[in-house]
Amino acid sequence: xxxxxxxxxxxxxxxxxxxxxxxxxxxxxxxxxxxxxxxxxxxxxxxxxxxxxxxxxxxxxxxxxxxxxxxxxxxxxxxxxxxxxxxxxxxxxxxxxxxxxxxxxxxxxxxxxxxxxxxxxxxxxxxxxxxxxxxxxxxxxxxxxxxxxxxxxxxxxxxxxxxxxxxxxxxxxxxxxxxxxxxxxxxxxxxxxxxxxxxxxxxxxxxxxxxxxxxxxxxxxxxxxxxxxxxxxxxxxxxxxxxxxxxxxxxxxxxxxxxxxxxxxxx
Length: 267
Known about the structure:
Layout: H1 10-17, H2 20-26, H3 43-46, H4 51-58, H5 63-71, H6 75-82, H7 87-99, H8 105-126, H9 129-139, H10 144-156, H11 162-166, H12 180-188, H13 192-199, H14 204-211, H15 216-226, H16 235-254, H17 261-266
Helix pairs in contact: 2-8, 4-6, 5-7, 13-15, 13-16
C-alpha cells in the first residue's frame, strides 16, 4: 500500500498518520510554517536512482504524491520515471502536475521524510545497482565470446549479485531479442548511415530484425546499400557502428524506455 492509496481512504490515513495541517499542505489547500532545521533535500539523491526503481515506488502512491515528487525532480529525470508507469497512472500524474501550484515547504518535508525512510534507506543498505552497473559497463566492452567466458568464470567463483550484472549486459547479436516496440523506438533515433554500416556482414535473421523496425523508405535505402557489398569498408568502422547501437540500447533501457532481454527473462 502507498502513502496515499486512494481518495476514498484519504481521511483514514490522515487520522492514523498525519495531522490535518500536514495533509492540507500536501494537497495544496493551505500553507503553514515549519522550522528550517533538518536534513538536506533528498531530490538530488533521488535523481541518481534508476527510473524504474523510483517509478516502482511511485506506482504505489496516490497520484498527488507522485506528482509532487516528480515536480521536484529535473525534467529529464521526471520524464524518464513517467515512462516506467502505466498510461492511466501517467496521465493522472501529468494532469495533477499541470494544475499543481508551488509545493509548500511543509508538504515537501513530509514526503521527503517518507522517501528517505522508504526508498533511500533501503537503497543504501540493500541496493547494489551502482556496482552492478559499473561491472556491466566494463563487460559490455568485451566481444561476446569473451564476455560469455568471463561470466562463466564469475559464476563458478560464486560472485554475488551476478543476476543484476547479467540483466545489464547487451550485445549487438541480442537485437532480435528486443521486443518489436523497443526496436522501433531504438532505431527511430539512429541514422540510416549508422544502421547500414552496422548491418554489414550480419546474418539475414539479425538484419531482418533491424529492418523490420525501420520505415519502408529507409529500409529500401539500407537494403540498396547493403546490396553493393562491403568491400573496402574497414571492419573497425563496422564494429564502432555496432558499438554505438549497443550503447544507445543500454542508455535507453536505463532511462526506462524499455527493458533489456535479460531483464525480461528474469522477471
